[in-house]
């Protein structure tokens, strides 16, 4: 068990291509951190620098207080689970599990005990003498995890471990990884491009874009307080609608519609306004509302996703089945639930609205007037 | 099998990969760094290559500018005169001409027969694996063995082909008549090369995706037209690749066939340029001329390779 | 449609005959006596001289010096084939390992030095190669037969392609598991390459077995003659004889083609799979 400190770490490839820009993350002992972002955002590179598979151009990585920059991967006391499992195809499951321990000259009895324990924990005991090719994808993934936990490392590193599994298996393996990590209490860094996976697994999320950290925070913080338009559109499904708007004092102009912000507005000027689909509701008569033109509807069973436009800007709204759908609709929103971002930089603008903690409490389901 | 120790092409699946994918940089994201070990690993290969490839190659080039005393008493620098002598020699030009004709005919016939058989083997379902085995089996017969068997079939006393020819009033005298020997050489060379082409064409055909075949079957009723407009273009990469291979084969790998068939009496028999290199160098002891001829052949191979890399591999994309 | 199929089969049968009949005839004829062949020509039927002919070819001491038997030539061919195959695999695996798995200062240079050998066949540098061997005193030795043939990059190229297709993550996992370069090579890469090694062994064996020009130059001492060299020999001997030893020539041809043909037939699926395999 150990904490991991990533201090101003950068990666520059030969040829000057900069994949990671001065990243700072402090990971507590036993914490489950998920690095999330689109492909090419540098999340895997960062993970591989922690693992020692990629040289660190600048900065410092500490595992358990020890600077590991120049250590071999094997000396860093970490274990890694790969996307394609990376099991040795010519070895049996047992040999795969043992290999790392053998190379460390662990006594035989100890190896056997740990193999038995890991196999029991992951329910792979029946397959110990099979070759990986005789296993299903899910079983292989378990073996890959077994290979990691058997070493009792200071940290687990996961590099998109579930991407090769089908959707259903992915959900159940997700739960299993979380359970296992809780039980072992091992510090973990997990890389994924799947925001849902990130939300469900993480103690804290690190959202990366273009080699830089966009935001670090708990899943709910990141969901409810996205630090930038990038985070806002990346985290959450459906993606938060982002529309261009003008602020005049307390009045917000979105296309042809005007809303009164009840004092929750940041400074005047052009802004990007974000609104989650579930925060919009059909307006009462006489209420200030957005003029919404319906394009098409996605039926999700419990509710619907309604896609349309306000002015010429796309907007998505979640509506209960009971809501009446019309080509032209009027939608209302609690101003406290709007997100404001600077038009140019895309970064979040402070509002006079609720402090973050209260904002989260204000998020109980919005009433839906029939 | 081929003689060409250094050609990538004799390994069936190698040549096709050889093309544009030759990239110098390391393949792995992560590599070991060790000060000594990799050089130790490379050392044996490099040593063999330097002693037995670079040294002789350089020597071939350098001695092509000298005339060596046949009894080993020194040599004289003569500049380009070995080359000019060769190119001025009517005999050499005759051999070059024969080499071109030989190469063209062997390439044409072994490619066409190989393609025909592959198309048919691809079409039939029943017994296809038996045909395949039979058609591939002679793939690994060495050139001199093929030539020996060929010699028997063209033998003056017992050869059935000589007898068949005599029905048509053709008095076939392989080993004596220039034309008849050439005929027999080409026949044997084609016989030996057909399986190779067959294997490649068949695998080329079988790698055409089923969906494409089905789409073609729906779009185009006539089998022949379908072959011409869909199958053949898809086979083009294979065919171009084989073209180069077959030219190389005809130029170099047929040495065993020619050597066995002319039985050291090249006087009135057709030979190819490679045979001439060997004959002048080892039997005529004319090292300078032989080396100059080697260099000329090197240039031919070089041009072929460049041709393959530049035009063929670039123009054709594999799906 | 039915008629087409019939035509297809006809073409295939003709093709098979074209390729197979000479081989079968060679074998069948070798079981007849020389006199029989001389008067009756080639044969598709089994003769009664099989044991005598092959016994004679394998055990009689022939050649000019009377020092070489057929079995000796068979042995030499095996030594050449197997020695060449093993040498090729060892050299090229090591070289490919260095090129693919190590950060080398002169990687590009090493790569081109090795792969340039793909450009020039042995035939065009045969004279100077011979001289090098002669200077090194390696004429008439197994070493001289085998080692110069190793001076090409085919095997290296092949193993390089294969190593490149091995997922990067295996190396990464092995490094995390504490395996160094030697351990990784022995514990992971060699076992992973088993099938490839076997396939390359077979191909190289056939290639070595079938060598003709090089052994012909290298070996004047008949104790080092391979079967291919023997074929040239038997043809030279029979010039001028009344009834040539057709049966023995055929028997020698059969011995010379049997191992490679058997190997190709038995392992044909590998050969064909090899063709269609793409680099993944």
UniProtKB/TrEMBL annotation, chain A:
Gene3D superfamilies the record matches: 2.40.50.100, Nucleic acid-binding proteins, P-loop containing nucleotide triphosphate hydrolases
Single Gene Ontology MF annotation: ATP binding
Entry-linked CDD domains: ABC_MalK_N
Cellular compartments annotated: Cell inner membrane
Keyword annotations from UniProtKB, A to Z: ATP-binding, Cell inner membrane, Cell membrane, Membrane, Nucleotide-binding, Sugar transport, Translocase, Transport
SMART domains the UniProt entry points to: AAA
Residues covered by the ABC transporter domain: 4-235
Record family assignment: Belongs to the ABC transporter superfamily.
Protein name per its UniProtKB record: Sn-glycerol-3-phosphate import ATP-binding protein UgpC
Lineage per the UniProt record: Bacteria, Pseudomonadati, Pseudomonadota, Alphaproteobacteria, Hyphomicrobiales
TrEMBL record, chain B:
Domain ABC transmembrane type-1: 96-308
UniProt cross-references to Pfam families, sorted A to Z: BPD_transp_1 (PF00528)
Keyword check for Transmembrane helix: yes
Keywords linked to the UniProt accession: Cell inner membrane, Cell membrane, Membrane, Transmembrane, Transmembrane helix, Transport
Statement: the UniProt record of this protein carries the keyword Cell inner membrane: yes
Segments crossing the lipid bilayer: 36-54, 95-119, 131-154, 174-191, 232-252, 292-312
Mode of membrane association: Multi-pass membrane protein
Entry-linked PROSITE patterns: ABC_TM1 (PS50928)
Compartments it resides in: Cell inner membrane; Cell membrane
SUPFAM superfamilies linked: MetI-like (SSF161098)
Xref: InterPro entries: MetI-like (IPR000515), MetI-like_sf (IPR035906), UgpAE/MalFG_permease (IPR050809)
Subunit-structure text: The complex is composed of two ATP-binding proteins (UgpC), two transmembrane proteins (UgpA and UgpE) and a solute-binding protein (UgpB).
Alphabetical list of PANTHER family matching this protein: BLL4140 PROTEIN, SN-GLYCEROL-3-PHOSPHATE TRANSPORT SYSTEM PERMEASE PROTEIN UGPA
Role description: Part of the ABC transporter complex UgpBAEC involved in sn-glycerol-3-phosphate (G3P) import. Probably responsible for the translocation of the substrate across the membrane.
Family (UniProt): Belongs to the binding-protein-dependent transport system permease family.
Protein name: sn-glycerol-3-phosphate transport system permease protein UgpA
TrEMBL record, chain C:
Localization annotation: Cell inner membrane; Cell membrane
UniProt keyword NADP present: no
A Pfam family reported for this protein in Swiss-Prot or TrEMBL: BPD_transp_1
Signal peptide coordinates: none
Cross-referenced Gene3D superfamilies: MetI-like
Residues passing through the membrane, by range: 78-99, 106-122, 142-163, 184-209, 249-272
Tagged with keyword Cell wall biogenesis/degradation: no
Chief location of this protein within or outside the cell: membrane
Membrane topology: Multi-pass membrane protein
InterPro entries per the UniProt record, alphabetical: MetI-like, MetI-like_sf
Classification via NCBIfam families: PRK10973.1 (NF008210)
Function: Part of the ABC transporter complex UgpBAEC involved in sn-glycerol-3-phosphate (G3P) import. Probably responsible for the translocation of the substrate across the membrane.
Oligomer status and interactors: The complex is composed of two ATP-binding proteins (UgpC), two transmembrane proteins (UgpA and UgpE) and a solute-binding protein (UgpB).
Name of the molecule in the record: sn-glycerol-3-phosphate transport system permease protein UgpE
Biological source species: Pseudorhizobium endolithicum
Species classification: Bacteria, Pseudomonadati, Pseudomonadota, Alphaproteobacteria, Hyphomicrobiales
């Amino acid at each position: 068990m150990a904490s991991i400190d990533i201090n101003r770490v950068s990666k520059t490839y030969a040829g000057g291509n900069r994949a990671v820009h001065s990243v700072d993350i402090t990971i507590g002992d036993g914490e489950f951190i998920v690095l999330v972002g689109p492909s090419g955002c540098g999340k895997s590179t960062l993970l591989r620098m922690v693992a020692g598979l990629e040289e660190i151009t600048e900065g410092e990585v500490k595992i358990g207080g020890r600077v590991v920059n120049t250590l071999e991967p094997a000396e860093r006391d970490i274990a890694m689970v790969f996307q394609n499992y990376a099991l040795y195809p010519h070895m049996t499951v047992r040999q795969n599990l043992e290999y790392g321990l053998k190379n460390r000259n662990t006594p035989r009895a100890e190896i056997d005990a740990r193999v038995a324990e890991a196999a029991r924990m992951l329910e792979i005991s029946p397959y110990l003498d099979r070759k990986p090719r005789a296993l299903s994808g899910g079983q292989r993934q378990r073996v890959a995890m077994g290979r990691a936990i058997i070493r009792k490392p200071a940290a687990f590193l996961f590099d998109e471990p579930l991407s090769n599994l089908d959707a259903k298996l992915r959900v159940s393996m997700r739960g299993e990884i979380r359970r296992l990590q809780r039980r072992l209490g091992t510090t973990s860094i997990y890389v994924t491009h799947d925001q849902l996976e990130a939300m469900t697994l993480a103690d804290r999320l690190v959202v990366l874009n273009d080699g830089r950290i966009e935001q670090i925070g708990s899943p709910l913080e990141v969901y409810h307080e996205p630090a930038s338009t990038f985070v806002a559109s990346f985290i959450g499904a459906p993606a938060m609608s982002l529309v261009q708007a003008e602020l005049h004092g307390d009045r917000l102009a979105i296309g042809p519609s005007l809303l009164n912000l009840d004092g929750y507005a940041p400074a005047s000027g052009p802004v990007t306004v974000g609104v989650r689909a579930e925060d919009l509701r059909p307006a009462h008569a006489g209420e200030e509302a957005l003029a919404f033109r319906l394009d098409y509807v996605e039926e999700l069973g419990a509710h619907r996703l309604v896609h349309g436009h306000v002015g010429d800007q796309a907007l998505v709204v979640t509506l209960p089945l009971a809501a009446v759908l019309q080509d032209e609709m009027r939608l209302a929103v609690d101003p406290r639930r709007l997100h404001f971002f600077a038009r140019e930089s895309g970064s979040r603008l402070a509002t006079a609205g609720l402090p973050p903690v209260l904002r989260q409490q204000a998020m109980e389901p919005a009433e839906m007037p029939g | 099998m081929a003689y060409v120790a250094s050609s990538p092409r004799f390994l069936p699946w190698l040549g096709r990969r050889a093309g544009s994918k030759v990239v110098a940089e390391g393949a792995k994201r992560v590599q070991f760094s060790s000060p000594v070990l990799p050089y130790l690993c490379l050392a044996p290969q490099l040593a063999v290559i330097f002693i037995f490839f670079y040294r002789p190659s350089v020597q071939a080039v350098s001695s092509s500018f000298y005339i060596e005393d046949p009894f080993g008493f020194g040599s004289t620098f003569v500049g380009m005169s070995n080359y000019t002598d060769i190119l001025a020699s009517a005999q050499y030009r005759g051999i070059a001409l024969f080499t071109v004709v030989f190469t063209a005919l062997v390439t044409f016939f072994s490619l066409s027969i190989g393609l025909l058989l592959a198309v048919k083997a691809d079409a039939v379902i029943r017994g296809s694996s038996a045909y395949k085995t039979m058609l591939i089996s002679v793939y690994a017969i060495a050139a001199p063995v093929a030539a020996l068997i060929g010699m028997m079939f063209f033998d003056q006393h017992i050869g059935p082909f000589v007898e068949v020819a005599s029905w048509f009033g053709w008095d076939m005298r392989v080993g004596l008549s220039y034309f008849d020997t050439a005929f027999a050489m080409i026949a044997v060379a084609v016989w030996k090369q057909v399986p190779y082409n067959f294997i490649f064409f068949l695998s080329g055909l079988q790698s055409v995706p089923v969906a494409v075949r089905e789409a073609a079957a729906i779009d185009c009723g006539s089998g022949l037209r379908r072959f011409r407009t869909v199958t053949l273009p898809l086979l083009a990469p294979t065919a171009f690749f084989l073209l180069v291979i077959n030219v190389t084969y005809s130029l170099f790998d047929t040495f065993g066939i020619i050597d066995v068939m002319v039985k050291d009496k090249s006087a009135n028999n057709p030979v190819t340029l490679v045979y001439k290199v060997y004959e002048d160098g080892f039997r005529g002891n004319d090292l300078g001329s032989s080396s100059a001829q080697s260099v000329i052949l090197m240039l031919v191979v070089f041009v072929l390779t460049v041709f393959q890399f530049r035009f063929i591999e670039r123009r054709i994309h594999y799906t | 449609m039915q008629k087409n199929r019939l035509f297809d089969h006809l073409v295939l049968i003709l093709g098979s005959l074209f390729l197979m009949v000479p081989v079968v005839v060679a074998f069948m004829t070798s079981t007849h006596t020389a006199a029989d062949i001389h008067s009756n020509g080639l044969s598709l039927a089994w003769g009664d001289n099989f044991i005598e002919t092959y016994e004679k070819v394998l055990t009689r001491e022939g050649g000019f010096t009377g020092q070489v038997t057929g079995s000796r030539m068979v042995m030499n061919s095996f030594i050449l084939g197997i020695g060449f195959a093993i040498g090729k695999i060892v050299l090229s695996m090591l070289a490919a390992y260095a090129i693919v798995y190590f950060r080398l200062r002169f990687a590009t240079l090493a790569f081109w030095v090795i792969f340039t050998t793909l450009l020039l066949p042995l035939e065009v540098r045969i004279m100077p190669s011979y001289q090098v061997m002669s200077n090194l005193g390696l004429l008439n030795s197994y070493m001289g037969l085998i080692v110069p043939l190793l001076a090409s990059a085919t095997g290296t190229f092949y193993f390089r392609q294969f190593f490149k297709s091995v997922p990067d993550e295996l190396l990464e996992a092995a490094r995390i598991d504490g395996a160094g370069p030697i351990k990784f090579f022995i514990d992971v890469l060699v076992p992973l390459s088993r099938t490839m090694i076997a396939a390359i062994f077979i191909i190289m064996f056939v290639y070595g077995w079938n060598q003709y020009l090089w052994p012909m130059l290298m070996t004047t001492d008949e104790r080092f003659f391979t079967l291919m060299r023997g074929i040239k020999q038997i043809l030279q001997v029979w010039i001028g004889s009344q009834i040539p030893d057709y049966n023995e020539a055929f028997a020698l041809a059969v011995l010379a083609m049997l191992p490679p043909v058997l190997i190709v037939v038995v392992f044909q699926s590998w050969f064909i799979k090899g063709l269609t395999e793409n680099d993944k």
